[in-house]
Write a structure and sequence with these properties.
Length: about 120
């Protein structure tokens, strides 16, 4: 069942990397700009489209759902690791801004829990 989602995952990953490289070159930098995020959005969008428009066998839907569920956390973890390495190379400003973002997020937790209860 799991193997059926691999083709969709591979297509989204390769397309996302290509579009990220293209976007980076259009802006004028030699880097992949958002390729992983584009791949994740493609995977979510295409899997939803295929479930709605095309009558897929249940086993194929389970395979696509499995790969959608496993791909996103792994890619987010890989991107976070790269961001930490980049922040350490960039110096103090990147580290201070990272810590500040986390601190502000912690301060927002009580507010978000109050809003969530309503």
């Amino acid at each position: 069942m799991v193997i059926y989602g691999v083709a969709l995952l591979a297509f989204c990953f390769i397309s996302g990397l290509f579009l990220g490289e293209l976007l980076g070159r259009l802006i004028g930098i030699e880097a992949n700009l958002g390729g992983v995020g584009i791949a994740m959005l493609l995977l979510i969008g295409l899997s939803a489209y295929l479930k709605k428009k095309i009558l897929l066998p249940p086993i194929t839907e389970k395979g696509i759902t499995f790969w959608s569920a496993i791909y996103i956390p792994i890619v987010v973890a890989m991107a976070a690791k790269q961001n930490v390495f980049s922040a350490l190379d960039a110096g103090g400003v990147a580290l201070v801004s990272g810590f500040l973002a986390v601190f502000i997020s912690f301060l927002l937790i009580p507010f978000l829990t109050k809003v969530g209860k309503k």
